[in-house]
Every structure is written in structure tokens, then in C-alpha cells.
Amino acid sequence: MLVLLAGIFVVHIATVIMLFVSTIANVWVVSDVGKASVGLWKNCTDFNCNGDLSYAHEDALKAVQAFMILSIIFSVISLLVFVFQLFTMEKGNRFFLSGATMLVCWLCIMVGASIYTHHYAGGQQVYVKSHHGYSFILTWICFCFSFIIGILYLVLRKK
Question: What is the DSSP letter of 103?
Fold first, then answer.
């Protein structure tokens, strides 16, 4: 049981770190032609990220930014609640609060990544030929991890 809890804790920390990286890094869509990429915040060309996004004023992008920030907040809160419950909860109880908070994080990731996928993932707004960057892929990996962690928290009992 201790190994399982430690494993979940490590995966949860990894998920928080990947959420930070995927939200901060400007590599959601990468150009196939040159060294250029687009993220949630800036347009980067030749490792110079001073360019503003041409669609920065759109509400869809602002929604993606908000949901990704909310997912980070809920993931950190879930981690803190899990550690708190680990040391204060009575034996035999389940980690309901940690699981529910992590599933809210999962929902925020799903909404943010889905909006980005629908509006911007094709890359036609910026680059003619492009592919998904590592930030976009990390976001979907965090989506899977946060769902698994949330369900495991709901199922696990403290022994």
C-alpha cells in the first residue's frame, strides 16, 4: 500500500510539473518550415519569443489560458489536500476530497485542451505547414494522468 501511495504521489508531482511546462512553454504548434512556434502566450521565431499572437484578443484563447491556469491550481490543491489527508485522516477512509479536486483539474484540462484543439491545433491561423508541439502533447498526457490519479484517489482507502 505504501508503494502504491508513493507511486501515485510521484505521478501527481510529475503531472503538476508537466502542467506548468505545458502552460508556460510556447510550443503548442510548431512550424514545419522554419524555427517558429506558437504557444498560449507568445509567437516564437528563431528562439525569440517577443512576438505577440495575432489572435491574442480572441475569447477562445483567453478561455484556454484560464482553464490551463485553473488546472494547475486545482492540481496543486489536490496534491496538498492528499498530503494533508495522508497524515490527518483516520484509517479506513477514502481520499474523496483529493480525488474530487483532481477530477476538477481533469475537467479543466479537458475543456482547455479541447477548445485549443478545436480553434487552433490545425495551425492554419499562423503556419501553413505545422505540427503539434510538445506542450500540446504534454497537456493531453496530463489529461490522462489526472483522470487516473483522480479515480485512484476515490478508490483508495487509508490503511
Answer: H
Q: For residues 99 and 8, is the Cβ–Cβ distance under 8 A?
A: no
Coil/strand/helix, residue 46: coil
Q: What is the pLDDT of residues 53-78, one digit of tens each?
A: 777 788 988 999 999 999 999 999 99
Model confidence, pTM: 0.88
> Do 19 and 142 touch, CB atoms closer than 8 A?
yes
What letter represents residue 150's amino acid? Answer: G
86 — pLDDT class (breaks 50, 70, 90): confident
Cβ atoms of 26 and 49 within 8 Å: the answer is yes
Distance CA 128, CA 133 (A): 15
3-state secondary structure of 48: strand
Q: How far apart (Å, rounded) are the C-alpha atoms in residues 32 and 30?
A: 6
